Amino acid sequence: MVRLRDKASGTFQRLSQLLRFTRLLLPYWDKQAVLYLCLFFSLSFGLAQPYLSRLAIDFALIGRDLYLFNMLVLIGVVLYLFSIPIELIQKYVSFYVRTRVSFDLRSRFYRHLQLLSLRFAQSRTTGEHLYRLGPDLENVVSLVVDTIPSLLLFPLRLLVLLGICLWLSWPLTLGVLAISPIIYLHVRFFSKRQYGVLEETTRASQEVSSRLQEALALIKWVKVFGRERSEWRRYLGDLVSLIRLNIRAIRLSLFQSESSRLLNAVLVGGITYWLGYQVIRGRLTLGLMTALTIYLFQLLSALKAIGSLYNEVYLKFIAMERVAQTLDAQAEVTEPARPIRLKNPRGEVELENVTFGYVEHRPVLKNISLRFLPGETVAIVGPSGAGKTTMSYLLLRLYDPWEGRILFDGYDLRELPIREARRLIAFVSHDPFLLKTTLWENLRFGKPDATEEEMEEALRLAEAHHFVEKLPQGLHTEMGEGGFQLSQGEKQRVAIARAILMSPRVLILDEAMAALNSDHEQKIIKNLKGYEKGWSLILISHRLSTVQGAEKVYVIDQGRFVEGGNHYTLMANRGFYSQLFQEQLAKEGLRPGKMSCFPEGVA
Ligand SMILES: Nc1ncnc2c1ncn2[C@@H]1O[C@H](COP(=O)(O)OP(=O)(O)OP(=O)(O)O)[C@@H](O)[C@H]1O
Ligand SMILES: [Mg+2]
């Protein structure tokens, strides 16, 4: 009973989803009307043609009536000539609607995917997202554009065909109907398995290509770890699995076509024999025999189509559910109902009793309260996994806190438009990304209308101008794969320049200079601190020498705020920070006196 109810609610859900996707056709209702008219005409023409043949044979040929013969040929030719432009229009309109609906759905899907939370995007592999945006989405389009018209016209065609066949010879039609379950089961048996193998093959080849893509992108590391041979073996293994699937598909297709030929031979032989027998016995005219043969074969192929249509619809429904799942996913981080627009943002940021985690019941940040004043340079230090980067993600509103709030100039960050919040707070990580385009476009990712002067200034502040000047085509040099390869330190400086171009009020550098030497780092920090437009600087660093330039240091451990102050007071406290510092010095084999940041007498 419960299963029955579940099944019914599942069907209802699918139908309502189908209705929702069918709405995509609404803007093209006029084209759809033309399409249905064309389909209706083709259907009528297909049904009328055999009867015309019957009339031609029985009355014109056997009755030697030239006038009637001419008339019938004329009607046939006119109908045929009509059918050509109609088929042309039908194919064109169908292509047009399919292309437009595909465009609309792709655009809507990708926009929604972009708006969804980072958590959703990361909960699936890139391959999965691409599969939904590619084959799944095309299946949905084909469902609404091709399958629905076929489904709607199908019963009509079947009923008319049945009616004609029954009218022409009811015993034979009933005979065909009696064996129709065999035809249906035969088609169902094979198409179900064939679709299954087809799906498996598509998925497997997608996985193989995405694994190949990954291995090629990481070619350097494959070499460094000496994994060339094992990568090649893995690829061979993947290929063998694909070949096995292909063999299964071919085996199925051969069995299907041969058994179908056998079934057809039996049916065609039986029907032809029976019709011939009726003609010889004088119970059927030659014309009726011709017409009946065609109608009965049309009926047989319609009966066969029921089996394959069922599987086609079933698979397309699965694709539809996957597409709907992404479209129905709700963004965790949402726009405020009444957004506040800050006129002159100052850049004061405060975390107020913030608790947050990625997984339920496992908080990463625990009741943290911190304050960053406008124009201030604050360093955040703490062991690996303490939650420093997580805190930056909250400031960028990639996630919202479970408890507590984050204030920007006294306003809850959730009350600002998301775009605005992300423009006010810029973030550079230790692992900077470069798009596969020119350096110019890479910088414009930070500010789409940045001028050359602005770019040069940003590069100068990030101490990147020296190496950019030496690039073969300067700012117009292609970056990344196939283009110019920058060193990690150079990439980090480009990333800093890109963030500077956003003119943020708060600039977070999360180990963003880890690949640079101390001198370079100090120069950049000095430039950023002395910049007249001014911003609050948040420096997240393991390298304790980085913190020397900061006015304040916040220490975090296991998601909790441990202590705060400047470097010297923290050292004097002999607390967690001082311990971290001593450990680092011991690791580096240095004595406190050797560090320029370390005044005499401390520690
Ligand atoms: N997407 C995620 N899903 C689940 N757990 C995560 C996720 N990102 C980070 N974590 C966990 O949250 C904790 C804090 O991570 P975070 O990256 O904030 O540390 P961190 O202080 O920046 O460390 P590091 O100095 O090594 O960069 C870690 O234990 C980490 O495993
Ligand atoms: Mg981190």
What does this structure look like?
The chain is α/β, with parallel strands linked by helices and 603 residues long. The protein has 2 domains: 2-328, Up-down Bundle (ABC transporter transmembrane region fold), CATH 1.20.1560.10; 349-565, 3-Layer(aba) Sandwich (Rossmann fold). It has helices at residues 2-22, 29-61, 66-115, 118-122, 126-168, 170-217, 219-224, 228-280, 286-328, 388-395, 418-424, 439-444, 452-461, 465-469, 488-501, 518-530, 567-573, 576-588; strands spanning 349-356, 365-372, 377-381, 403-408, 411-412, 425-428, 506-510, 536-540, 552-557, 560-565. The strands form 2 sheets. It has a 6-stranded mixed β-sheet, with helices on both faces. The protein has a 4-stranded antiparallel β-sheet with strand order 2-1-4-5, covered by helices on one side. β1 and β2 form a beta hairpin. The longest helix has 53 residues, at 228-280. It binds adenosine-5'-triphosphate and magnesium ion. Magnesium ion binds at residues 388-389, 510. Adenosine-5'-triphosphate is lined by residues 358-359, 364, 382, 384-390.
